[in-house]
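Hi Y.,

Following your request, here is the sequence exactly as I used it, all 172 residues.
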Amino acid sequence: MNSPARGRIADSSPASAGSTEPAGAGAMPDERDDPAYAAAYRAFAAMRNLVLGSDDRRREVADATGLSFSRSRALRRLARKPMRMTELAAEMATDKPYTTLIVDDLERRGLVVRTVSPQDRRAKVVSVTDAGREMADLATHILSRPPTALREALSVEELAVLEELLSKIAIR
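Below is the corresponding structure, written out as tokens. Let me know if you'd prefer a different format.
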């Protein structure tokens, strides 16, 4: 496997994991001295590089959909379930005015519609249109494809071991 962390296992410095952060950034001194923490840091840096650095999926989504990545992100969330504007803002960790701009643009493009909430007539519920669902599905398909480096670097057996290891720590 050709990973950025390969060959550096003996170095317990988290900053050696290919991170652009200075040594110790975000880490308590006792964590930096802990070999398990250092190994986890390096493994996470390799995973982060694989997922975020190997293929520019955000650019690919933007090119394929004609939407900024933040707009496609909102669309993918709305494809899962209709939401009130405040819920969408909270899920995207954006402020309400920015969320309104995103939804305004998606609505102009015919990808979402706003309706009055049956529970609170002052609130609007945003849901995707059929065209919005197709666009969200396209973005999801692009983002779900395994990175090329992962497919090329590991055998089917190694991928099965990796899947087993990752399933032990899967967020539920």
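The longest helix spans residues 35-53.

Thanks again,
Q.
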